[in-house]
Amino acid sequence: MLKILGYEKRSDIITLYYGLNHFGWWYGVRSKDGKDLMPELKEYVKDKGYFVPSDDDGAKQHGASSWNETYRMAKDIYAVDPDTLPNTYLKYYLLPDTVVKHSDINYTRANQVMNTREKEVFTACRKIAENKAFEGDELSVDEHDTMKEILTMR
Question: How many degrees, rounded to 5, is the angle at CA 36 between CA 34 and CA 42?
Answer without folding.
Answer: 155
